[in-house]
Amino acid sequence: MSAARHIAGDPQPAPQSAPDMQLPPGQQLAAPGRWPQVGERTPREDAAPWTVTIGGDVARPITFSLAELHALPQVEQSIDIHCVTRWSKLGVAFSGIPLSALLAAAAPHDLARFVSFVARSSRAHSTSLALADAIDLGAIVALSCDGAPLPIEHGGPVRVVVPGRYFYKSIKWLKRVDLLADDRLGYWEAETGYHNVADPWREERFIAAGISRHELQKLFATRDWSGREVLGVEARGLDLTGLVARGALLRNAHFEGARLSTSIFDEANLSNAHFAGADLRGASFRDADAEGSDFRGADLRGTDFRSASLLGVTFVDLAAARADNPPSAAQIDGTTRFDAASLAELAPPQAVFVLAAQGQASP
Ligand SMILES: Nc1nc2c(c(=O)[nH]1)N[C@H]1C(S)=C(S)[C@@H](COP(=O)(O)O)O[C@H]1N2
Ligand SMILES: [Mo]
After folding, report:
1. Is the Cβ atom of 188 under 6 angstroms away from ligand 1?
2. pTM of the entire structure?
3. Distance between CA atoms of 249 and 241, rounded to whole angstroms?
4. How far apart, in whole angstroms, are the C-alpha atoms of residue 167 and residue 121?
5. 8 A C-beta contact, residue 277 and residue 331
6. Would you tell me how many other CB atoms lie within 10 Å of the CB of residue 37?
7. Nearest CA to ligand 1 atom 11
8. In terms of Cα–Cα distance, which of 114, 120, 157, 122 is closest to 139?
9. Spatial separation of the C-alpha atoms in residues 224 and 217, rounded to whole Å
10. Beta strands 87-98 and 114-119: pairing type?
């Protein structure tokens, strides 16, 4: 079906999940009432009035003022937010204009197959989607949330919300929508290897990072990864005792079952890293960003997490009453070190587990 014909039709409702399957694999609910801010925190300062332009491969490029956007027919939609760093927030009521309606006003050419969103932000942040996906999923150009104008810290006055995709596909501070014949990778997709499709139900979080075998061999031989970019590194079950990885970029790294006692991950970026079953006795994660990482079954005695960012981290598998599960809880005791900053970002059941394991009462 041509993209243009596609746009002419009504947007399809987002696929419904069964009530008992509301969380995609590897996601956890954020604390009630919490909506973390992720990525850029503010739009670019600019005295010019806010506008949103639809351009690229269209017959009629068109620019809307905010007042014009507000005058268009709005829909309200309850949308589940799934962040790639593993927190989810279900049923957020966004209202705004269906993306399909805005695009129809610009009359996209038949050859347009992708849609790229560009933000009014200092790095001109962007993200893109297949045009048919954006329409089928029912993406909206949102102006309000829970009955109030969209707060600036969450992308106000106008952001895109794409149901059924990790939230990095939902750009804050929308300035431009470009219709494209060929895809243009967005900021996170190009810079950090986030998956370009981003379906949370298929756990499309990361593209495997490219690093040569030779380079990897050197890294394993020296065990000094400080400041290196080793995204998605495959180190399952390896003996890397005493690894030094200060400030290393280790998003989505696979360290399941690895021997990593006394290793140093201070200031490293370990988002979505896999440490299940790893020996991390005496390891240090001070000031590390470990958002979304998995430590189930890891030995964390003597491990130091002070000032680490632990949003969405898993220390215990709460759904693991099954016999086929590998050891589901991390080994934590009074020698495992946390501080208020690191504990504050944990999902409540994880924090309760940690405090109990440390032999402390919950606050
Ligand atoms: N302009 C802009 N939009 C963005 C980002 C960003 O850094 N800049 N980050 C994305 C990511 S990774 C996420 S998870 C969501 C976070 O939205 P929130 O801060 O409202 O929770 O915004 C997305 N849109
Ligand atoms: Mo994100």
Report:
1. yes
2. 0.64
3. 19
4. 17
5. no
6. 12
7. 168
8. 114
9. 12
10. unpaired
Is residue 48 predicted with pLDDT exceeding 70?
Answer: yes
d(Cα 319, Cα 332) in Å, to the nearest integer?
19
Lowest pLDDT segment from 69-73, 217-221, 262-266, 323-327: 323-327
CA–CA gap between residue 226 and residue 123 (Å, rounded): 27
In the reported structure, the alpha carbon of residue 228 is separated from the centroid of ligand 1 by a whole-number distance in angstroms of 25
Q: Is 202 left (phi over 0), alpha (psi -120 to 50) or beta?
A: alpha
Beta-bridged to residue 126, according to DSSP, are 118
Integer Cα distance of 175 and 178 in angstroms? 10
Q: Give the β-pairing of 87-98 and 28-29.
A: parallel
CA dihedral 167, 169, 170, 174 (to 10 degrees): 150
**Half-sphere exposure at residue 249, Cβ-oriented, CA atoms within 13 angstroms:** 9
Q: The tokens 């805005």 sit on which residue?
A: 102
Judge whether 103 and 7 are in contact, CB under 8 Å.
Answer: yes
Q: For residue range 143-184, what is the model confidence (pLDDT) as tens digits?
A: 999 999 999 999 999 999 999 999 999 999 999 999 998 888
SS (H, E, C) 254-279: ECCCCECCCCECCCCECCCCECCCCE
Q: What gap in Å lies between CA 92 and CA 156, rounded to an integer?
A: 15
In this predicted structure, the answer to whether residue 324 has a pLDDT above a threshold of 70 is no
- Check pocket membership of 222 for ligand 1, CB cut-off 6 A: no
Q: Facing residues of 78 across strands?
A: 93
38 lines ligand 1 (CB under 6 A): yes
Instruction: Give bridge partners of residue 194 from the DSSP assignment.
Output: 206
Residue spans of alpha helices (H) in 197-318: 213-222
- Rounded CA gap, 173 and 155, in Å? 5
Residue nearest atom 10 of ligand 1, based on CA coordinates? 168
Single out the residue of 144, 135, 139, 185 nearest to residue 161, CA to CA.
139
- Nearest 5°: phi and psi at 149? -55, 140
Nearest CA residue ID for atom 21, ligand 1: 37
Task: Answer yes or no: are the C-beta atoms of 146 and 93 closer than 8 Å.
Answer: yes
